[in-house]
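Go through this chain for my students:
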Amino acid sequence: MVRTVPPLGTVPLARRPLDPDDRQRHWYENELGWRTVPGEPLQLVTGLRFDVLDVPVEAGVAALWRLGPDSPVAVRGDRMRLLVAAGSAEELPGLLDWLEWGALAPALDLVALGEGGHMEAPSLPGARPAGAPLPGSGIAKGQPLPAGGPRPLQGAAVWLRPPEPGCEVEASLPTMPAVGGVGRAPDLVRLVDTVATQCHRVRLRRSCAQPLAFS
């Protein structure tokens, strides 16, 4: 008796695990719905879902209380990136003038990234070196970084307050106040005023710390 061998079915190929770079891009594009820039290093497109205020980390820490609890914040070295509503970068020069910071604006070290801009993509939440402290951890709300204390990690950008997959980031971003005071989003005007004040204080501290030059 001859035994009939059943036909072989199609065996699906095992999926290759995503490498770290692909996993990072997949998280931003598919989990958050944020557009990225082709190529390496991975960068996020600003001006679509959000704009960015790039400030000295001391100024950013002192302004965190102006943000909502879900407002994303990133840190890279001695710079902090505060995510704000799309279109805020275009509003910034007029806001600084209205808040009477216009004359000092070029020296404030306050940079806005908006339409057509790119922001370095922070590492995935939790993907920092083992044993390394989270940037800004242990700092009381509204307080500057202590002189001589631990500084944020140098190198790649990381999330201090990461965005939440499945949540619309726009609802948590500082924006221009709604007409009639309706709305729960953080107030962009108050944030910019606080950040500008803190940037000015950082500038004054740095200028006072410079050694005097004698001819």
